[in-house]
Write a structure and sequence with these properties.
The protein has 141 residues and is mainly alpha-helical. It has one domain. 79% of the residues lie in helices and 0% in strands. It is built from seven helices and no strands. Helix 4 runs antiparallel to helix 5, helix 4 packs parallel to helix 7 and helix 5 packs antiparallel against helix 6. The longest helix has 28 residues.
Amino acid sequence: MSKPVKIILLVLLVGLLVLIRMFEDQLFYGVLMDFFKTTHSTDPLPSYDLGKLLGSISLRFGMNTVLSLGILWVLFRELAIVRLSVILYAILYVVAMTLFLLLISSETSGGHLMLFYVRRFLIQPLFLLILVPAFYFQNRK
């Protein structure tokens, strides 16, 4: 793949990640987005539809994962890296979603910081920021 094509693809994929973030209010069920934008440290969680919430978080995680896998493919062009990343993303989803469910079901009021960060890890492509340098340094060896 030529360098200009690689750069265009990377800009396109990162741009799609940015668009997901820009239009999150229109695309996803936002009861917790609004809650975490306010002073939520002592407030009880707002009422929510658990099915919609889990579906929305899962959809967003899936969209970010597909774009992140595309970025990893463009950067490294190795099927082994993409396969390993799929496994790591699947493990992350199961662990983080389980933790999210435990936290959301046990929280009554206040102490939502852990819930905030677990949710943030599920809805933002933060894992990509960990994988890119890890695979880069692994490939250099």
